[in-house]
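User: quick one
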Amino acid sequence: MSRILAVGSVAYDSIETPFGKRTEILAGSATYFALAARHFAKVSVVAAVGDDFRKEDLDVLASRGIDVSGVESKAGRTFLWAAKYTDDLRGRTTLSTELGVFADFKPRVPPSQSAFPYLFLGNIDPDLQRGVHAGMERPSLVVCDTMNFWIEGRREALDRTLKVIDLLVINDEEAMLLSGEGNLARAAGAILKMGPKALVVKRGEHGAAVFGKGYLLFVPALILDGVVDPTGAGDTFAGGLVGCLAALGLGGRSALDETSMRLAVSAGTALASFTVQGFGVESLVGAAPAAIAERHAQLQKLAGWSGMKLPLGESA
Amino acid sequence: MSRILAVGSVAYDSIETPFGKRTEILAGSATYFALAARHFAKVSVVAAVGDDFRKEDLDVLASRGIDVSGVESKAGRTFLWAAKYTDDLRGRTTLSTELGVFADFKPRVPPSQSAFPYLFLGNIDPDLQRGVHAGMERPSLVVCDTMNFWIEGRREALDRTLKVIDLLVINDEEAMLLSGEGNLARAAGAILKMGPKALVVKRGEHGAAVFGKGYLLFVPALILDGVVDPTGAGDTFAGGLVGCLAALGLGGRSALDETSMRLAVSAGTALASFTVQGFGVESLVGAAPAAIAERHAQLQKLAGWSGMKLPLGESA
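Assistant: Done. Structure below.
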């Protein structure tokens, strides 16, 4: 079974949407990523939590076959983000961001994990991303996420990171900001000159586009009833995507072919459809392989393909 | 060759976008509709223009095989709309709306056109739409557009119109407003109880969804460089869609099947991709069948289908 090392946040969120409110629930980019990717591959998480982090929350990951030996517990508070969404769930206001132990998080790759072939660099400081990359022996596929905060504030460091990755996964607003282009097609062209061999642009409820070598593809999002909390959808999407690529055994910069990327993006899309239907990870953790396959079948009907099959059940 | 009667506006627009400015150029919902639909079927337009309407603008339609015998010339000014778009082309401000002769437009179906099998009710007062419908003998497919203005101001009249149509084509904002639902899946479910047998929801640059009997499908928009003016994209889309359905020979409420609707929506999408790449109709009028087929091939690659072929070249 393929092994993925994922660095990012394991955190708490306090979330309010028109459908309810939750306080200090399990969250974080690496959490969502791992809970999605574990359906396809064995995931090891590198992160830091505070001494307030509840054991039962670590067990949510560990009991599902996710390797949490790289999650360091440090004196201090766990990263806590609080936000309130607008009535249509399309906008949100950050109420507070308390970095806690995440403020001086220096991720270290455990020696036993340095030879893993798949590396996911979650949304952290680009220098830290590159440090994790340097701690790996020779990953065959490096996937990276980033956000406006780093694009605006740490551009030179980010430019260096972009040169060592294979696949960048960001949303359309970030693609515009990173490229300085107001048009997505031109933005993607500019970004592909910065280093990545392929670019996935997430468009939320509308779907995702892949700009690859010699191809351009689009996968719609499922049109869902019962959406209650969009938090974590993007990280879940990345987890399904990278997990699927790992299960397919795809490594190397030339391997991000069109057919595999369509399947991988549809895997991410299917997984993310669960995340948004519950607060935090509550719907995602309950998604069984049969239910994921059913969502994927719905997605195929929506998009008009047939015959694709997710490499589910590769996990322990 | 199938015949379509289309009622709507033939008008002038004054448009400013970050890419330029045009004053009093040929526009209107029926204009865009007809210039797209004519690639698949014979279109007759019912509209009213003022005595200021330039003959060369009517010739833009007539010289392309569009029947303009139902376009009445009346004393007064042609409908003129002026708008300015935001830098990202996603928002716009209406600067002025001068209804002119459109203010007391009472569309009449020419007797020679009352037996046409396909009817497109463009975005006008719902009572006028129903009047046109009543003037037709027994259309086998009735497609309707509407907008916020009628949904908010003429709801009872609109409700009556919705009961006589087969297919409603609106954007997602209008679908939410019409249904009172904040979620698209629920909005569509509610609208399908109001009368239409199928619903097409336009999502602009993101694509379009069809909610039909026993199916749900999505067609992405092309990811385009060189977008300069989005005006008329929705009307062009409707023209390609209805034209394609007419060329396929689809009439009757049971005929809006999934395969045909996917092809028809992709026809509309391919045509609309030209409209947005020029001001007004300047790019649309120059789109040759081979170029439209090429756009459709690009769309198939983007969406991941294969083997579909547009019924192009059915026009005179």
